[in-house]
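for the recovery benchmark. tokens below, seq after
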């Protein structure tokens, strides 16, 4: 706006009485009337002509500065003052009719009323103009804000699309109502094209383009996990296989966070990531672990068979040879010992040596393959408890809650080795004074516990070190597809619990 016009506009705004209180307007009008009266008296003495000489501008200014009401008030006061002081009879308000005075007052009032009405019209027009101008400025400001907001929104949307397009998977938003089973996608990123070969818009228009491609055995898990997430507002986590547009099978992991939208609608914001490579590697790893476990089971079986064979050979062949040797020594002692005391002493020493050798052979045979194992796991455990008590000098009690226990030869041998290793650890490290072997049956499982009242140990410190005894126990339990639990605390003993499935 031009500067002079702007100054005039500011002056007109200052003249506009809309922001003033009515009392202020009347005070302004009264002040102007007093100034006009003093001016009239200064120009000419009382009782002279031209009674309304200074009252005209006073009324105009009162109307301009105060509005129509103060202007009319000033006009009436001026008529009274002029009639009292400047129209004869002077200093009195004559009630007698005077045509000249009457028409003078009429003309003054008419002129002033015209001026007051014109000024009031100007005030109203200016107010209307100011309001319109203000509204136009507000509209222009709103348009500018909307344009800036639209630009920021477009920039944000572009940034969001760039980010979602670079995510190695699908970024999506979907919702599902409690009254229907249909899942609707409100947003799908362009990653759908790279992952499934399907346009993102097609999935938004028809959710079966995504759900219908889930491989049959995984679809049930997909819907169950979705329903559970909707019911509990928990994280939706699903992993399964899906077919691409070319018929290729891919594995995806879907994770989405739920939130309520209204009373009956659940919305999810999430991402579906391609995990085909990691799933393939996982399957290879599981297959490799399975093969290693099968190999370990085979080696363990071969080792047990070899132990059995060696124990049998020691028992049969070496035992027979030692028995024959002892019989020959005994015969020689009976035949020639009486006549030769020195020979008798040597034969007696040989007899003791052969007996110790026979005992060593029996111990080696039992260590390799206890003969009690051929009689079943119960007999083997009874022999093991008795042998441990004699060997470690620690009382060991076998507690059988169910005497009817049947295991395959392989399973019985594995359980026997597990308990044997546990007892060996007790003898070496526990410093116990009492040991119990407890056998129970529950829910298709046989459970074997080895409890001691020794000094115990810290499970975390043992886990951080290589313990081949525990590794062997865990591997045998894994071969049997059982469960292993080790409970130990410093100063409170140890409990090793093994549960294996049985028919």
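predicted aa per position
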């Amino acid at each position: 706006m031009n500067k002079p016009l702007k100054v005039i506009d500011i002056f007109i705004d200052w003249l506009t009485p809309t922001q003033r209180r009515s009392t202020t307007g009347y005070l302004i009008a009264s002040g102007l009337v007093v100034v006009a009266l003093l001016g009239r008296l200064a120009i000419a003495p009382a009782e002279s002509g031209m009674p309304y000489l200074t009252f005209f501008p006073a009324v105009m200014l009162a109307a301009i500065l105060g509005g129509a009401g103060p202007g009319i008030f000033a006009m009436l006061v001026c008529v009274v003052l002029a009639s009292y002081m400047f129209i004869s009879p002077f200093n009195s308000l004559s009630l007698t009719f005077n045509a000249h005075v009457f028409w003078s007052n009429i003309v003054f009032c008419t002129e002033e009323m015209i001026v007051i009405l014109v000024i009031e019209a100007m005030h109203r027009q200016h107010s209307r103009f100011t309001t319109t101008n203000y509204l136009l400025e507000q509209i222009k400001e709103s348009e500018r804000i909307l344009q800036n907001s639209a630009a920021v929104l477009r920039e944000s949307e572009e940034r969001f699309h760039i980010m979602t397009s670079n995510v190695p998977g699908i970024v999506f938003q979907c919702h599902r109502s409690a009254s229907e089973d249909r899942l609707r996608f409100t947003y799908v990123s362009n990653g759908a094209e790279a992952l499934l070969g399907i346009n993102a818009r097609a999935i938004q228009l028809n959710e079966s383009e995504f759900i219908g491609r889930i491989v049959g055995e995984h679809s049930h898990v997909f819907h169950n996990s979705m329903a559970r997430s909707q019911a509990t507002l928990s994280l939706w986590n699903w992993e399964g296989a899906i077919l691409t547009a070319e018929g290729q099978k891919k594995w995806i992991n879907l994770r989405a966070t739920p939130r309520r939208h209204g009373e009956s609608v659940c919305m999810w914001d999430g991402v579906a990531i391609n995990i085909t490579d990691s799933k393939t590697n996982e399957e290879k790893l599981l297959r490799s672990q399975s093969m290693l476990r099968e190999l370990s089971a085979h080696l363990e079986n071969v080792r047990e068979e070899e132990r059995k064979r060696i124990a049998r050979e020691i028992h049969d062949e070496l035992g027979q040879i030692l028995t024959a040797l002892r019989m020959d020594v005994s015969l020689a002692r009976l035949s020639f010992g009486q006549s030769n005391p020195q020979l008798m002493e040597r034969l007696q020493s040989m007899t003791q040596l052969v007996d110790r050798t026979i005992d060593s052979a029996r111990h080696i045979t039992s260590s390799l393959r206890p003969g009690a194992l051929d009689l079943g796991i119960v007999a083997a455990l009874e022999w093991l408890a008795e042998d441990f008590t004699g060997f470690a000098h620690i009382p060991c009690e076998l507690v059988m809650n169910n005497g009817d226990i049947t295991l395959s030869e392989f399973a019985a041998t594995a359980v026997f080795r597990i308990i044997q290793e546990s007892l060996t650890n007790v003898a070496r490290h526990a410093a116990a004074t009492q040991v119990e072997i407890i056998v129970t049956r529950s829910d298709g499982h046989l459970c074997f516990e080895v409890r001691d009242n020794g000094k115990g140990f810290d499970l975390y410190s043992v886990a951080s070190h290589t313990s081949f005894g525990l590794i062997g126990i865990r591997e045998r339990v894994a071969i049997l597809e059982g469960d292993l639990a080790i409970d130990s605390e410093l100063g409170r003993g140890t409990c090793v619990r093994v549960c294996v499935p049985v028919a």
